[in-house]
Design brief:
mainly beta, 7-stranded antiparallel β-sheet, 47% strand
C-alpha cells in the first residue's frame, strides 16, 4: 500500500509542470504580471491553495496557463480532492510603447466538503515611457459569484478589481512599483 501511495505521489509531482516562455525583449509587450490563475497580481499575494509566489509574464500573442492537482491525505479523518485552473490571454501592441492584454480565467477546487469556483475576465493597458518608466491601467471582473468562503477571498484573489500602477526598472532584473486599486468582493 505504501508503495502505491508513494508511486501516486511521485506521479502527481511528475505530472505537475509550469510551462511559460518569458521574453525579456524591450521591443516585445510590456505588461504588469498576472498570477498563474490569470488574475491581476497584487503584492503580497498568495497564489491559491498550496500554490506559490509566481508571476505569469505575458508575451506577444496567445498565452495560456493550465494546472491540475490531485490532493489526498493519509491517516485517520484524512480528506482528498481535486483542483484545476485555466487562464488564457491575448497580448499585443497598439503602438511601439502601448501594450494591451485581454483574457479570462476559471478555477475549481473540490476538497473534502468544500467546493470553490471562480471565473472572470481581465484587461490591461500599459504605456512604456522609456526603458525605465512605465504606467498601467488594469481591470478584473468576476463573471460568477465566486463560491469561496469569505475568509479565503484574500487567498484566491477573487472579486472585481480596477486600478493603476507605475513601475521604475533599474535594470531588467530589478524594479520597484506602486499600484493603487479598488477591489470589491462578492457579498
Amino acid at each position: 500500500m505504501k508503495r502505491l501511495l508513494i508511486s501516486l505521489l511521485t506521479a502527481s509531482f511528475a505530472l505537475t509542470s509550469i510551462g511559460q516562455e518569458v521574453i525579456e525583449d524591450f521591443e516585445n509587450v510590456s505588461l504588469p504580471p498576472l498570477t498563474l490563475r490569470g488574475t491581476i497580481a497584487h503584492y503580497p499575494y498568495y497564489n491559491g491553495l498550496m500554490g506559490g509566489f509566481y508571476d505569469w509574464e505575458l508575451h506577444s500573442g496567445f498565452n495560456a496557463s493550465l494546472s491540475a492537482a490531485a490532493i489526498f491525505g493519509l491517516g485517520h479523518n484524512a480528506t482528498s480532492g481535486f483542483a484545476n485552473s485555466m487562464a488564457m490571454a491575448y497580448a499585443g501592441k497598439i503602438t511601439p510603447k502601448l501594450s494591451y492584454s485581454i483574457g479570462g480565467y476559471t478555477s475549481f477546487l473540490d476538497y473534502a466538503s468544500h467546493v470553490m469556483k471562480d471565473a472572470g475576465l481581465t484587461a490591461m493597458l500599459n504605456y512604456r515611457f522609456d526603458e525605465h518608466w512605465e504606467a498601467a491601467l488594469f481591470a478584473q471582473k468576476s463573471l460568477i459569484k465566486p463560491q469561496v468562503p469569505p475568509h479565503l477571498y484574500w487567498m484566491n484573489d477573487v472579486g472585481d478589481k480596477i486600478g493603476a500602477s507605475v513601475r521604475y526598472s533599474f535594470n531588467p532584473a530589478f524594479s520597484i512599483g506602486l499600484s493603487v486599486w479598488r477591489g470589491s468582493t462578492p457579498r
